[in-house]
């Protein structure tokens, strides 16, 4: 908290100390994992104020990716040298929007989580990529199911807020 208050010359000094410490600990090599972004759906039951990703079903640019689109994007990512398929999505849109529930039913699924698990398996079986999912709040059962078809998982802790 105190570091967040630093300004002016002290801030410049703080940056140079941070850089020095980083270089000393990590050297000059930057490592990263090449991943292709698979935004399964941008519909979301939540409304985080900073979020530029979320859409309502009737907003322009609202989508659910089809399995064919998931495969197409994954294969293109693999062709360009990616190693991971990063699944992102809104949080349980079917809890708020009948349109999302209908769309999932058309696709043959009862929930976004069911669809995600299936798309992870598809990518794992049909491409050389390793899935990494970043869904919203998850139950223990969701984590167990995703564990079977993901190399790693992300958790959006901000949407556990009651507000
Ligand atoms: S939960 Fe995620 S997708 Fe939904 S509004 Fe918040 S940041 Fe956006």
Keywords:
TIM Barrel, single chain, binds iron/sulfur cluster, alpha/beta, four-stranded parallel β-sheet, globular, 163 residues
Brief summary:
This protein has helices spanning 8-26, 67-79, 98-107, 112-126, 140-147; strands spanning 35-41, 84-89, 130-134, 152-153. The protein has 5 helices and 4 strands; from the N terminus they run H-E-H-E-H-H-E-H-E.
Discrete helix count: 5
The structural domain count equals: 1
Just name the CATH architecture.
Answer: Alpha-Beta Barrel
Kindly report the average pLDDT value.
93
Structural class: alpha/beta
Spatial ordering of strands, largest sheet: 1-2-3-4
What is the CATH level 1 assignment? Alpha Beta
Oligomer: single chain
């Amino acid at each position: 908290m105190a570091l967040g208050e630093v300004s002016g010359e002290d801030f410049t000094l703080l940056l140079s100390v941070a850089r020095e410490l980083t270089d000393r600990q990590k050297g000059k090599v930057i490592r990263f994992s090449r991943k292709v972004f698979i935004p399964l759906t941008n519909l979301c039951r939540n409304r985080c104020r900073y979020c530029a990703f979320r859409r309502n079903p009737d907003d322009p640019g609202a989508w659910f990716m089809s399995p064919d689109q998931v495969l197409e994007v994954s294969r293109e990512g693999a062709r360009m040298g990616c190693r991971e398929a990063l699944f992102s999505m809104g949080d349980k849109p079917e809890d708020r929007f009948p349109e999302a529930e209908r769309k999932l039913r058309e696709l043959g699924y009862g929930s976004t989580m069911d669809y995600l698990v299936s798309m992870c398996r598809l990518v794992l079986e049909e491409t050389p990529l390793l899935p990494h999912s970043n869904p919203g709040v998850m139950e223990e059962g969701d984590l167990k199911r995703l564990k079977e078809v993901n190399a790693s998982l992300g958790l959006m802790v901000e949407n556990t807020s009651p507000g």
